[in-house]
From TrEMBL:
This is Adenosine deaminase. The keyword Hydrolase applies. One of its GO terms (molecular function) is deaminase activity. Its cofactor is Zn(2+). The keyword Lipoprotein does not apply. The lineage of its organism: Bacteria, Pseudomonadati, Pseudomonadota, Alphaproteobacteria, Rhodobacterales. Keywords: Hydrolase, Metal-binding, Zinc. Belongs to the metallo-dependent hydrolases superfamily. Adenosine and AMP deaminases family. InterPro entries: A_deaminase_dom, Ado/ade_deaminase, Metal_Hydrolase. It comes from Paracoccus thiocyanatus.
Length: 318
């Protein structure tokens, strides 16, 4: 599956950091972040809340623009090794550099340089600046301003992640309106932990894509609506299995969502946390549903259509 050319739309930058990278950086900085690794050196977490704790502890060693540039280079090289030709990364000014616009510009400049080098090496990328739901609407407002003020180059979209059980998506409407007016693509995590209504709430923000959205299967009318509107689902089946949202790969709703006419795509979310890789996701889908090259090719065409990059780049990816 590595040789299949792939497009990844749902990948959290900090969540893609190999544990070894975080450990090495912590050692360089004489920082103790013990308690987030298991005896084999992998990230250790128990449930989603604990996952967010470990994620934030790991991200806390990333401090300077150079740290983020180094991480991005490493992550894009990893994506390329998995056969990805394009990746969209969820990058949150709320984790790096705060949401102060001058500071954000420094982080962005460093990451843009790393992304340009990776593109010369064969993998294109864009950033989706990401509001963190459990940090609240006020910080999200600042993230949206960072996104709007730096849109047009590497920054191509605005998204929202974080604890889906905290607050309501409607509280973030200002941020999404601001980003839309700046011409950015919009996506939101929804229908992962909460039911169909959360997906309707995301649509009300004006998104063209939904992060996960697996619980749409519970609502036939919603499925029809998503299909008619041509909404793309950023599915990360290995993440759902690892978090216990679905029992196993065979039980994953991806096939039912595809049968309902939805544009389904495949990504990894936070690969080292969920012990997965992009080619492993495809292999597991092949094993569970008998899918092969033709099905995967279609999903990647949908992913290209839904990508937030400029039309010229999109044409080149097809
Ligand atoms: C997430 Cl804040 C965050 N980071 C990484 N993965 C996530 N999934 C949902 N929220
Ligand atoms: Zn995610």
């Amino acid at each position: 599956m590595k040789s299949l050319k792939k497009v990844e739309l749902h990948l959290h930058l900090e969540g893609a950091a190999p544990p070894g990278f975080i450990r090495a950086l912590a050692a360089e900085k004489h920082r103790d972040i013990g308690g987030i690794f298991d005896e084999r050196g992998a990230y250790a977490w128990r449930d989603f809340k604990d996952f967010l704790r470990v994620y934030e502890a790991a991200a806390s060693v990333l401090a300077t623009p150079r740290d983020y540039a180094r991480l991005l280079s490493e992550v894009l090289a990893q994506c390329a090794d998995q056969g990805a030709i394009y990746a969209e990364l969820f990058v949150s000014p709320e984790f790096c550099g705060g949401t102060d616009l001058p500071a954000w510009r420094d982080y962005l400049a460093a990451m843009e340089e790393a992304a340009a080098q990776a593109e010369r090496d064969g993998i294109a990328s864009r950033a989706v600046l990401t509001c963190i739901r459990h940090f609240g609407p006020e910080r999200a407002r600042k993230t949206a301003i960072c996104a709007a003020e730096t849109s047009g180059g590497w920054v191509a979209g605005l998204g929202i992640a974080g604890a889906e059980d905290v607050g309501e998506l409607a509280d973030f409407a200002w941020a999404f309106d601001c980003a839309r007016e700046a011409g950015l693509g919009l996506t939101a995590h929804a229908g992962e932990w909460r039911g169909p209504q959360s997906i309707r709430d995301a649509l009300a923000l004006g998104v063209s894509r939904i992060g996960h959205g697996i619980r749409a299967v519970e609502d036939a009318a919603l499925l029809r609506d998503l299909a008619e509107r041509g909404i793309t689902l950023e599915l990360c089946p290995g993440s759902n299995v690892a978090l216990g949202l679905v029992q196993d790969w065979a039980a994953h709703p991806i096939a039912r969502l595809a049968d309902a006419g939805l544009r389904v795509t495949v990504s990894t979310d936070d690969p080292p946390f969920f012990h997965t890789t992009l080619s492993q996701e495809y292999q597991r889908l092949a094993d569970a549903f008998g899918w092969a090259e033709a099905e995967f090719r279609q999903m990647n065409l949908w992913a290209v259509d839904a990508a937030f990059c400029d039309p010229t780049t999109r044409t080149r990816l097809r």
